[in-house]
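Below is how a single chain appears once it has passed through the pipeline. First comes the sequence as given, then the structure the pipeline wrote out for it. We keep one example in the README because the format questions we get most often are answered faster by looking than by reading.
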Amino acid sequence: MKVLSFVFGLLILVVLVILGGKLHWRLSTAELIEQMRASNENSPAIVDDSPSFTALPEPVQRYFSMVLKRNAPWPEQVVIRHEGEFNMGSDAQPNWRPMASEQTIQIQGAGFVWDARITMAPLMTAHVHDAYVDGQGLLRARLFGGIPVMSASASDELNEGELMRYLAEAPWYPYRLLPSASLRWQGINASQARATLTDDDTSVSVVFTFDDTGLITQMDATRYRDVDGRLILTPWQGQLWNYKHHNDVLIPMSGHVGWRINDSTQLYWKADIVSIESR
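Resulting structure:
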């Protein structure tokens, strides 16, 4: 009986830890999203300034003509839900695990909160925050939402990497790619152009590749990668496909991203959009 009581008590404790962790994670996610919204409350509105389009590189002009309905109102936030896989292994030994995530993106200003759940093993889930809020990058993971397993230290490199992610993923919310005081375009050739985004003291650039119809199919940049505790600048690449209309916007529903190492792309994220909501 004592053994059964001990086992039962242990199970109760485990359940309480899991439920408490999940509650704490939900509250911290909501707090991050509210902080992001408040920090961008006074950001200047994005304007569809049609005459300025003629000054843009040709592939960028084609892109906007394909994906945006002119003079349509832009939302304050976009919420995207993904399902896919995340590589928890090494470059040499991939370990793809099921992943589901909800990402809240701030359109006015700059910011996002990625709230992911990665199945590490049966009944074992890691909760991950990857975010750019109020000019600061954030990356942390907790088992069951409550037990810390990883947290990146605050740094300029982290801020730059998260703002770069926000820019690279903008084909999901293409109004943010419109030229503005914080974003400028530079032509490279008939199928590529470089976008540069500045937020406070952080400035990042991403090269976008466009297909013959004008849609973005690839993003390239150089980001910091953690290699045995050291941050190494490494080429980074993402690819997008399966474009579909959502309201007045044409967006890619599928994609993957990875590091370019030894002339090959070592993927670590691949997913499909399962729902998208504008707020």
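The first strand starts at residue 77 and ends at 87.

See the next section for the split statistics.
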